[in-house]
Design a protein that fits this description.
Helix 1 crosses helix 5 (about 195-215), helix 2 crosses helix 5 (about 195-215) and helix 5 (about 195-215) runs antiparallel to helix 6 (about 220-230). Strand 5, helix 4 (about 120-125) and strand 6 (about 140-145) form a beta-alpha-beta unit. With about 230 residues, this protein is an alpha+beta fold. It has an eight-stranded mixed sheet, with no helix packed on it. It is about 35% helix and about 25% strand.
């Protein structure tokens, strides 16, 4: 959906019918509210805080709606004491999985099953013979800490290759000749939303709710929230 259409729809939703009460809303304010709204929408769908209580990939619709954000990327690992470390990508939003290929002796490129574990359980997992990293069983675990992923080996094997599958942050929209709300610099390019038009419609309702809250317009605020949730 074009940004010009988004602007028209936002102003149409936030204005009283046949009035121009809020036509003084600036383009950068619409851009900022829309970008905030799409992040809130994404987090709600991923976590399942929505009308149907569905998280990511719990239904065909969720898979279809969120697949544009799901990417697989190779990560560079640095070997430390008993684990390998890699910084999370800058556009990281939520974990999905990590693929690891390990080697030990003459055996190379064995695919490992990697479980995401809690940092608080680290010592117990390393001590428990049934849960600690094992090349023989092709299993290990990873934790998230300090904006990085730690993949544990317990000195039992080496990692030759790793790929991270994750949900990334949605791309921020930009409007040509409109001040970028994050840098203050006038945008020289038009960046439209990457989501399908039906999802953009929901994000517009959420955008209207954010703007209505900023200008203390209770009716538009309530309507925007209700429509955004009712159509999920």
């Amino acid at each position: 959906m074009l940004n010009s259409t988004v602007t028209i729809k936002v102003k149409e939703r936030i204005n009283k019918l046949d009035s121009q009460d809020y036509d003084n809303i600036l383009c950068w304010q619409i851009v900022e509210a829309f970008n905030k709204a799409q992040v809130e929408w994404c987090r709600r769908q991923l976590h399942g805080i929505n009308t149907l209580r569905e998280g990511d990939e719990q239904s065909t619709r969720r898979k279809d709606d969120l697949q544009v954000l799901l990417i697989k990327s190779p990560i560079l690992l640095e070997q430390e004491d008993i684990f390998y470390r890699s910084a999370l990508p800058e556009n990281y939003l939520q974990w999905k999985r990590v693929d690891v290929f390990a080697c030990k002796g003459c055996c190379e490129n064995r695919r490992m099953t990697v479980y995401l574990a809690s940092e608080e359980n680290l010592n117990q997992l390393l001590r428990d013979k049934s849960k600690q990293p094992s090349f023989s069983w092709a299993e290990t675990f990873a934790t998230l800490t300090d904006d990085s992923v730690h993949i544990y080996t317990n000195d039992d094997f080496e990692i030759s290759e790793s790929n991270l599958t994750y949900y990334r942050q949605p791309v921020n929209i930009q409007m040509t000749d409109c001040a970028n709300p994050y840098t203050g610099v006038t945008s020289t390019e038009e960046v439209i939303s990457e989501f399908k038009d039906d999802i953009v419609e929901l994000i517009i309702d959420e955008t209207v709710s954010i703007l209505a809250g900023d200008i203390e317009s209770g009716n538009q605020y309530s309507r925007g929230q209700q429509e955004a949730e009712r159509n999920n």
